[in-house]
Fold each of these.
Amino acid sequence: MQFIDRHRDRWPVTVMCRVLDVTAPAFYPFAVRSPSATETRQAQITKAIETIHGEKHHDAYGSPRMHRELIKRGIECCRGTVAKCMKRAGITANRRTKFRISTTDSNHDQPIAPNLLEQNFETQSINEVWLTDITYIPTAEGFTYLAAIVDLHSRKIIGWKTSRNIDSSLVVSALREAITFRGTAAIGVIIHSDRGSQYASGPFRDLLAKESLIQSMSRRGNCYDNAPMESFFKSYKTESIGDQLYATHEQATRAVSDYIDWFYNPTRCIHRLITRARSTSKGRRRRPAACV
């Protein structure tokens, strides 16, 4: 009956009733009644969802993250209602692209650090474990490389740098920024990365030793050993880059700043995984995520 009521200006009511096997005496009392409290509430939630979905980067939100964003804005509702409202309004998460990160060169003779995490991503506070990795951003001038460092507990990006070159100076610069940001609290932090030559290089290891940081590395070719870092890069590429091609390295760098400094860290609802990456890959249950 709701379909008939919504489309009565387009098609005759009698025709729609006949096609949908609804009697006119049953439809008209429905049409003249006032919306119920539930319908009014769902309409308000749907309007709020449409507003959020139209904001920059928020179009990548599915119902779980959309629900958390609504709660964050003071709109009380349950996740099932949000999913129902999104489905009725035809609103879906915009997953723009699929990608594969392939910036790791582990074929080198530099020292390899032990894997201190072993896919255990549980932490009690910030500055226990920092994760780091490199990804690429396509531009008309060639690839721009992004090195980022995330605090495993808060899931916030605490240091990042871009460069036209994928070398040790890129990862050293990103780590220096994180150390400057966190100050003396950084002493004793575990720095976990893949086995890439940049992280095994002398300049990177020298900086770790100088700042009393502890190095940890994933197993060869196992992306799940650094899953939260991979998750950030996926979010960045699907929510910010999409299929666009930046014209210059500088444009790509500005886009990274716009996403991390003005959206991801201060605004975005970030998943805090407390289970091992292995359980995620096998579909085991997670604890509900929180906004941090």
Amino acid sequence: MASPAKNQQPFDLSGGHPALDFVNSLDNRFRPDGPVELLADYSDLLRFMEQAQLLSSQQTRLLAKATKQDAAARVLQSARELREAAAMTFYGSVDRRPPPLTDIRTLERHFLSASRHRELQWETSTESSEGRPGIAWTWGRFETEADLPVWMLSQAVSELMMSHEMARVRTCGADTCRWLFLDTSKNHTRRWCNMKVCGNRMKARRFQERATEPRVSR
């Protein structure tokens, strides 16, 4: 079982997309001593949503106040289920292997649930209409439901997986990290989730290894 996070430090949103940052909320996923769970409770999920700019601070306060403890526990479990199915699929795509069918079905269930909880509304201006009035998908009457974070994350995962951007999903080159990120570099050669963390750490490790290599006398 993953150990819970011990503090409430800001989430490291190095993934370049909310769906990838969401998967990265299980930190050190591949370390032998086990991962670290950054979504320890419903409040962590709300913090993530706000920091990822999926929900406003006002929305997270309303959800925190309105959501009862049993509902919070259920939604947190649902969010983790979505995250792990998404992780298997993203990593499967990067490693060019199909994810288990059970994970595909889990994603399907979450994607369909998100779709059922959206509604069309007339908007005075929409991004797609360059500021002109039009119809747009909104969460409408579902905006105060405890499950809103899971529906929004399901939509984010779905949109990325079914877009051409899926081909740009990479994993961090540090073998103990392997965080997911969207490679938007000019030549698509980005190697690290965070150059200041994993990049410098791996450079230091290689330097140390070279320094300790036995020298061959001539």
Amino acid sequence: MTLVNFLFFIKIEIMKTISVVNQKGGTAKTTTVVSLSSYLANFGKKILLIDFDPQANATSGLGVNDFKKTIYEVLSGQASILESLVKIKENFYLIPASENLAGANIELVNEPDREFKLAKIIDHLPSDYDFVFIDTPPSLGLLTINSLVASDEVLIPIQAEYYALEGLGQLLNTLNLIKENLNQKLKILGAVITMYDERAKLSREVLEELYKNFPGRIFRTVIPRSVKLAEAPSFGKSILEYAPNSKGARAYQRLAIEFLYYNNF
């Protein structure tokens, strides 16, 4: 039995909701959530990706430009979550975003239980999804807080650069506050190092410092800098569909395998 065939037999007992978060932009956050979702769907897991970023990069990066309802209409009560679903491929579904979502930051301010809006929406999802991923904005505003309150776990993409350690420390402090005050079940699944250049001394040093300072919280899979990864969104495709034999694709395939291992053992 091949490894891929084995992954089809791994059964996810309970649906998990996972926010992909980093308050700093340019960390390959959307690339990571789109690529990981695509590979997990390819491994037979049923995936829902919620684009919760007003920039809507996950939506455009998957080539979705013909939709009637978005997560904004769901949040504002104008549509149900089922009305907004877009099928990307077998086992892979998207709830798209648009720039209208930026208005939700203001509209939610005076709403009762404003931090729990997305959690209530996800509670009404069918239970046959294995994983629900939420692509969050590159900030720690009300949308990201909603995402964290709705989630079981957090996945943190980190660019291999000088400020990564400082940024991760700040984010971990924020996650602790969310856990203490709004969502006691929230756990850190781990951080994945992105845009890694093995030729650069700085990248190697950052990698070593992250492993040393955050033991057990860093995925062993490292995502390299890759032209193909950068090109794929402009073609409206994940790296699996765009360049499956590229080094970036192989890295995200390894990450998906490691992710499934973490979620089952």
